């Protein structure tokens, strides 16, 4: 399973990149706003800075909600770094049309805000590179986000779609482990749950024991 980091914070992206396990980055308007960037120039500079850190796709979401606006903005975002930028578009009527437009041009796209298998089917038929179902937000309303990931993975396999299932709105380590179980192609996570995967009390305890042994052998 690939790991993307779900943040626009440059420090956190650099930290994940330095681990050597990072496959890409996803951002959205909320995550960009958190970094305090304002205006087109700053926003584009920020995406460029992210692209310079990571060796992989960087999802940049359009702010426009109408088809023409999405096309214009998507083209501009893609031009920031055509080797990395993935145009992130919402799963709406205009968004699906825009996914199809960019897919036909060979651009990478990420169809976001997906909450049903039906939406995932449309994203794949439009040719999205990634489909982003939101796990945590479904759990928030007492639905089962991980079941949706499993159902989309199975549906894509059954029909042979090339679209990758990018599990989003991942909140904790258990979400990541469950994504592995159901075969998500990618999990995009905040830094904390990625780092939490490293921790185990027996690893800490075992290292203490080894450190003591190493200290006892010093001359
Ligand atoms: O990947 C989508 C993500 O940023 C949304 O996460 O926690 O706001 O549902 P959350």
Features:
single chain, 219 residues, alpha/beta, 8-stranded parallel barrel, globular, binds SN-glycerol-3-phosphate
SSE topology sketch:
Elements: E1 2-6, H1 10-19, E2 24-26, H2 29-34, H3 39-53, E3 58-61, H4 67-80, E4 85-90, H5 93-104, E5 109-114, H6 117-126, E6 130-133, H7 135-140, H8 145-159, E7 164-167, H9 173-182, E8 186-189, H10 191-196, H11 201-216
Parallel strand pairs: 1-2, 1-8, 2-3, 3-4, 4-5, 5-6, 6-7, 7-8
SN-glycerol-3-phosphate (G3P) binds at residues 6, 26, 28, 31, 134, 136-137, 168-169, 171, 188.
Instruction: Give helix % range.
Output: 40-55%
Strand content: 15-25%
- Please report the number of helical segments: 11
Overall structural class, as computed from helix and strand content, comes to alpha/beta
List unreliable stretches of 5+ residues: none
The number of distinct β-strands equals 8
Distance between the termini: 45 Å
Radius of gyration: 19 Å
Ligand list: SN-glycerol-3-phosphate
Q: If strands are numbered along the chain, what order do they take across the biggest sheet?
A: 1-2-3-4-5-6-7-8
User: N-to-C SSE series?
Assistant: EHEHHEHEHEHEHHEHEHH
What does the largest sheet look like?
8 strands, parallel, barrel
Question: What is the 3D shape?
Answer: globular
Mean pLDDT: 97
């Amino acid at each position: 399973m690939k790991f993307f980091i779900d943040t626009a914070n440059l420090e956190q992206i650099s930290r994940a990149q330095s681990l050597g396990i990072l496959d890409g980055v996803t951002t959205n308007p909320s995550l960009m706003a958190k970094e305090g960037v304002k205006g087109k120039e700053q926003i584009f500079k920020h995406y460029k800075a992210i692209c310079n850190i990571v060796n992989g796709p960087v999802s940049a979401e359009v702010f426009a909600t109408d088809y023409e606006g999405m096309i214009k903005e998507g083209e501009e975002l893609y031009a920031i770094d055509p080797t990395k930028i993935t145009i992130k578009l919402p799963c709406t009527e205009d968004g699906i049309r825009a996914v199809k437009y960019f897919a036909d041009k060979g651009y990478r796209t990420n169809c976001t805000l997906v909450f049903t298998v039906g939406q995932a089917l449309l994203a794949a038929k439009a040719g999205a590179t990634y489909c982003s179902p939101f796990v945590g937000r479904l759990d928030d309303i007492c639905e089962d986000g991980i079941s949706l990931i499993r159902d989309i993975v199975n549906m894509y396999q059954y029909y042979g779609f090339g679209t990758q299932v990018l599990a989003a709105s991942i909140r904790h380590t258990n979400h990541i482990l469950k994504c592995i179980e159901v075969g998500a192609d990618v999990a995009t996570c905040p830094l904390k749950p990625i780092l939490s995967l490293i921790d185990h009390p027996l690893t800490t305890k075992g290292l203490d024991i080894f450190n003591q042994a190493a200290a006892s052998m010093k001359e």
